[in-house]
Amino acid sequence: MRELQSRWKRVSLNEVRALSDVISNTLPIILFISFGFLIQRKEILKKSTIIDIKKIVMNISLPAVLFITFINMDFKKEYYLIILCIILLMTILYFTGAILNLFKRIHNPLNPFMSTGFSFGLLGVPLYGTVFGVDNLGKISVIGVGHELYMWFIFFTLLKIKFNNDKFTASTIIEMIKSPLIIGVVLGILLNITGFKGFIHEVGILKGIFTTIQYMANIATPLILIIVGYDLKINKKYLRGSIRIVILRIMVVFIIGYAFKFLVLDALIKDDKLFDYAYFTFLILPPPFSTPIFMDKYNAHEYRDLANNVTVLDTIICIIVYVIFVALL
């Protein structure tokens, strides 16, 4: 009897500790997003200020995160294949969305663009990093490399051609290469594989620069989550259409995504739970927050508002599902 009581106490204590871990890991996400939403509701900051903060995140903090992640990553041969596989997956998702448009009842010009692409930098990195630790960001970042290459070289080019009636030119390639995110990733990888990262920690000036970059990376997660909370606004006019697109997106992403994982990715990465968690985190992410911004730039205002609704709804679903997912873990 005493032994049973002792076991019960140990189980109860483990459950309390597990619950405490869940709360400690997810509470910062919820609080920062709530803080951003409160800033929007109380009009503490203007929209123009948030746009400027986004520029800091996208051009400085997030590239710093990716640079630090890739310079410290333990590169494996299969990672290069994973990058190519993710680009292939993104392309398959796009064409699946295009095929859905053959059915009149669900036809929408946004379907191909809402069936692919994820808010990797602005939501995937902080979600995964907050729960599983910054040291494990390499697991999701290797997925992110293929994703970012696809987004900047293929997705936004197709978006521009569709809604701005533009053509693919050399200037498009130059514009993508100049992206701070791509530069951060490429520099991190180059310094890693050439072994130069060890030299950085030995030279005073370089070490100081590296520390500065680390500081810039540290502010990325709170700023990003505050921005996410600030942007949580739904336009009721497009609610019905956006719900339909969100349902289609979730179905396409999870059916195609996990079929692709079982058939392709599992042959490259075996028995790696952190990678499995990273892949799940990646698939539940909403469409890129930048998509409505680009559509506004191309004067597709009606589709911009619909895309923004889809992104907001999917973001809410993502956060709820992720909290449940972490609780189950």
TrEMBL record:
Q: Which Gene Ontology CC terms are recorded?
A: membrane
Q: Is Cell membrane tagged as a keyword?
A: yes
Cite the InterPro entries for this sequence. Answer: Mem_transp_PIN-like
Single Gene Ontology BP term? transmembrane transport
Membrane topology term: Multi-pass membrane protein
* Xref: Pfam families: Mem_trans
Range of residues in the leader sequence: none
Superkingdom, according to UniProt?
A: Bacteria
List UniProt keywords, sorted A-Z.
Answer: Cell membrane, Membrane, Transmembrane, Transmembrane helix, Transport
Q: Where in the cell is it found?
A: Membrane
The residue ranges crossing the membrane are 56-73, 79-103, 115-134, 140-159, 180-200, 212-234, 246-265, 277-294, 306-328
UniProt protein name:
Membrane transport protein
Give the organism, scientific name: Clostridium homopropionicum DSM 5847
